[in-house]
Amino acid sequence: MRPQALPGLGRGLPLRLPLLPLLPLLPLLLLSLAPGTAPRAPRFDPTWESLDARPLPVWFDRAKFGIFIHWGVFSVPSFGSEWFWWYWQEKKIPMYVEFMKNNYPPNFKYEDFGPLFTAKFFNASHWADIFQASGAKYIVLTSKHHEGFTLWGSQYSWNWNAVDEGPKRDLVKELEVAIRKRTDLRFGLYYSLFEWFHPLFLKDESRSFQQQQFPVSKTLPELYELVNKYQPEILWSDGDGDAPDHYWNSTGFLAWLYNRSPVRDTVVTNDRWGYGTICKHGGYYTCSDRYNPGHLLPHKWENCMTIDKFSWGYRRDAGINDYLTIKELVKELVETVSCGGNLLMNIGPTHDGTISVIFEERLRQMGTWLKVNGEAIYETHPWRSQSDDVTPNVWYTSKRKQKLVYAIFLEWPTSRHLFLSQPIATLGVTKIKLLGHGQPLNWTSLKPDGLLVELPHLTLHQMPCKWGWALALTNVI
Q: 394 CB contacts (<8 Å, ≥6 apart)?
């Protein structure tokens, strides 16, 4: 969600971004027949009732963990927030105004950051290798944020895109190719429906969204272009600009996406398709940024959150305590998966295309942890209890077919005895092992419920991992 925009036309708009020709409103049928798509009998109607009934492709729930990447012109000032432009020119927040006054010449405009977004050291293969090492199963790249700058050469964003300006490269294509050639990750794209200062959006807004010049001439053509050109398997919509879903023709676009697009069978979508749709409509729910309910939800959901506690984009003013530790990130992952969600963990690359050392370290640490404990995360299901009622910082997942329950505990007990109040074990049938250790562990059944597990005596160097451990319990109820 964004702060309420003030009506006005063109305030702060990059001079290189021309006014697009005003296209007539297209009928729903025409919008649903985008170019480059295969004919197929429609299965889903352009209504929320029909679209919400589409089964979520199974790969998404199995994946559990993805990487969010916020990258754009906002990475150049890299100060305060990826909402830099809005806070500086619209809200005129003093710290942003002072930052510009102290670091840039008078009359410097946001458009002048465009050529400085160089991506000079961007190496898509290197990025792909880091993401593979993280243990993530999908990525989501910001193809366009609220500033309107597209990371591909969009013909609908003339001279305000990464091919015409700055890098002079198709950054979306480079990363897509690297991800698909070098990793087993699914490739996804974030796309902001609205743009802060685009004159057509502001004009539509000033008329209470009773006309649709901006979505018809900008948003919808770009969405079709993205899907047909890059075939993302996640389409992460955001930024409704307080406009309802019918203004964006969201149901018409999603009907095409699910029925006729090249990714119709595998694509996954979120819930941000217009004012009021969040946590209500769409493929899976995000509900809010950094959403972690701590309990099981009836609908598939995702916790999109940031390693930097305060920003989605890179901040050169961030201090070491502004970043979550790996222990905190593991806890976030475990809690999220136990409650049926996926974790989408965000990093912000620099303007020249590098992933800072602290982000790379966190990603590789997560990968190290998942190499040991991934069995308790990937392809699991929520168990009847999400967390232990007695012992704190113990979370459960399960694999029903294998009759497995996993108890993930985030603190190693000094007594080496872990009490689990939820599982009911059976002598001679139940077996327990520590992932990364492998040897069967001794345990004692307690009445009326629960069991006491004797953990192995291990030195620090013998520990299978450092930031949380998982027990595999076979044949418990």
A: 387, 388, 407, 408, 409, 410, 418, 420
Residue 334 phi/psi, 5-degree rounding, is -65, -45
CA distance 161 to 195: 14
Query: 7-29 burial, b for 16+ CB within 10 Å, e for fewer?
Result: eeeeebbbeebeebeeeeebeee
Contact in structure between 248 and 219 (CB atoms under 8 Å): yes
Segment-wise mean pLDDT, segments of 10 residues, the chain, 477 residues? 33 38 39 50 92 98 98 98 98 98 97 98 98 98 98 96 98 98 98 98 98 98 98 98 98 98 98 97 97 94 98 97 98 98 98 98 98 98 97 97 97 96 95 95 91 95 95 96
Q: Over the range 281-295, which residues count as b (16 or more CB within 10 Å of their CB) and which as e?
A: bbbbbbbeeebbeee
pTM equals: 0.92
Q: Which two tokens stand for residue 382?
A: 């929520």
> For residue 333, what is the enclosing H or E element?
helix 326-338
Strand order in the sheet with 451-454: 417-420, 451-454, 443-445
Q: Would you call 129 exposed, middle or buried from its count of C-beta atoms within 10 A (0-12, 13-18, 19+)?
A: middle
Note the helical H segments in 339-456.
Answer: 357-373
Q: How many residues does the chain have?
A: 477
User: From CA 406, how far away is CA 474, in angstroms rounded?
Assistant: 9
Provide the pairing of β-strand 234-238 with 469-474: unpaired
Tokens of 366: 């997560």
Q: What span, in angstroms and rounded, lies between the C-alpha atoms of 366 and 327?
A: 9
- Within 54-117, strands assigned E span 65-69
Q: Among the residues of 84-144, which ranges form H helices?
A: 84-85, 94-103, 124-133
Residues 6+ apart with CB under 8 A from 49: none
